[in-house]
Q: What sequence folds into this?
């Protein structure tokens, strides 16, 4: 059984949703990057919807499995607890809104168009898409 999401958010250094308005995270793309995103949630929302807790737990588990292989391959792996974020790619700033499926992965490299995968992906799926998008040799987990 995977841990509840609360320790997960602490692992990634993310704050739970508090209802307060927060600034939109901005990521500067210096090398191939994956931005894993999910919406901020409150403890009450997690208690009310066990499916959300399970999905975010899976999200964290698989993300933790790919961090090391991605780093070794020269790929940044970021996590955004947000429904939108900004990406500064070669001096051009794009705003990304997650839409209806609010969990997913934003694959981007300097000067390249992004590729977005929505929904929770396994570690093997994340690595496979990264290999395809970045044309890099990436070791398995």
A:
């Amino acid at each position: 059984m995977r841990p509840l999401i609360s320790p997960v958010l602490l692992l990634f250094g993310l704050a739970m949703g508090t209802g307060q308005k927060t600034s939109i995270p901005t990521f500067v793309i210096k090398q191939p990057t994956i931005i894993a995103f999910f919406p901020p949630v409150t403890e009450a929302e997690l208690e009310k919807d066990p499916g959300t807790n399970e999905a975010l737990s899976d999200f964290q588990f698989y993300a933790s499995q790919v961090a090391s292989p991605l780093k070794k391959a020269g790929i940044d792996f970021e996590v955004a607890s947000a429904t939108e974020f900004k990406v500064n790619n070669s001096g051009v700033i794009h705003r990304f809104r997650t839409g209806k499926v609010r969990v997913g992965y934003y694959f981007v490299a300097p000067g390249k168009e992004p590729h977005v995968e929505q929904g929770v992906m396994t570690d093997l799926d994340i690595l496979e898409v990264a290999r395809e998008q970045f044309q890099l040799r990436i070791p398995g987990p």
Observations:
- The domain at 5-11+25-134 is CATH 3.40.30.10 (Glutaredoxin).
- The two ends are 20 Å apart (CA to CA).
- Residues 6 and 43 are 8 Å apart (CA to CA).
